[in-house]
Amino acid sequence: MKIAIFANDGRLSQIVSQRLRQKFKDTHFVLDDQNPDIVVTIGGDGTLLAAFHKYSALLETVRFVGVHTGHLGFYTDWRDDEIDDLVISLQSDNGQSISYPLLDVRVTYADKQKPENFLALNEATLKRWSATMVTDVYIGGELFERFRGDGLCISTPSGSTAYNKSLGGAVIHPNLKVLQVAEISSINNRVFRTLSSPMIIAPNDWVTLIPARESDYLLTVDQNSFHGKKIAQLRFKISKKSIHFAKYRHMQFWQRVQDAFIGSEYAN
Ligand code: NAP
């Protein structure tokens, strides 16, 4: 089995990375950053997001394992003091995995350049730099509303606990292949009207945004941002691709949500 280690710059992450690298050498795993079967990330959820984008061309064959060096994350199953157990689990690996849906983002530019495709693990957002964003929102090809406000966030189920949650979106179990649209400060008054609620979009549907003006937009895809090109249209749908995690132990999703946002002391 070929393993890549992907750590953030934090001091503890770097120490854990060195220790894990040595353990993999001692146990005769092959370390291969170019073409791994397993990517072990060390840091937090942000680190796993970065690793996902680095290895997005290998999604069909690669599986991810997250080690966290701070608090428990949504993509990280192992704590940094459990790496001996992680190595033992990798030694008895039988290919077990769990898969989460991804968001497919297709951007069509105003200058008729070839459309560009991006994959998001958490979400994509569209915002405008300097003034109110005005965009027509289509669902399944039908005009739904004209949105005015700061922006829109389109998230995956596993991204529903990230930016989407700060916007008042619902937390969605990643077994559901749906996407969610959440508003970022919409304008609602006697003249302008939006739904003003997060929307859960069915698996086979898609969302299209046609901004009223073609310039001045900021598109984010997870932690990456793009601007400067005039956007004519954006299309969002659940990707045919998924991210696969090597699953050696199972922590229930709702237990993870409770741990991250409520804490057991408030649960009863
Ligand atoms: P970052 O500052 O490292 O990430 C922001 C926070 O989001 C970190 O605490 C991170 O956890 C957490 N996070 C990431 N994915 C998550 C998930 N699926 N569920 C729950 N929490 C999650 O910034 P970054 O590395 O550039 O990450 C970009 C992400 O930040 C975006 O995908 C977006 O979701 C999030 N973000 C949130 C807001 C907001 O809530 N207002 C605004 C902008 C962006 P770790 O500490 O474990 O890395």
UniProtKB/TrEMBL annotation:
InterPro entries registered for this protein in UniProt: ATP-NAD_kinase_N, ATP-NAD_kinase_PpnK-typ_C, NAD/diacylglycerol_kinase_sf, NADK
Keywords in alphabetical order: ATP-binding, Cytoplasm, Kinase, NAD, NADP, Nucleotide-binding, Transferase
UniProt-annotated location(s): Cytoplasm
GO biological process: NAD+ metabolic process; NADP+ biosynthetic process
Catalytically driven reaction(s): NAD(+) + ATP = ADP + NADP(+) + H(+)
One GO CC term, this protein: cytoplasm
The EC number(s) this enzyme carries: 2.7.1.23
Binding site for NAD(+): 45-46, 122-123, 148, 150, 161-166, 224
Any GO molecular function: NAD binding
Residues forming the catalytic site: 45 (proton acceptor)
Pfam family name, one: NAD_kinase
Xref: SUPFAM superfamilies: NAD kinase/diacylglycerol kinase-like
Family designation: Belongs to the NAD kinase family.
Function: Involved in the regulation of the intracellular balance of NAD and NADP, and is a key enzyme in the biosynthesis of NADP. Catalyzes specifically the phosphorylation on 2'-hydroxyl of the adenosine moiety of NAD to yield NADP.
Protein name (Swiss-Prot/TrEMBL): NAD kinase
Taxonomic source organism: Liquorilactobacillus satsumensis DSM 16230 = JCM 12392
Gene responsible for this protein: nadK
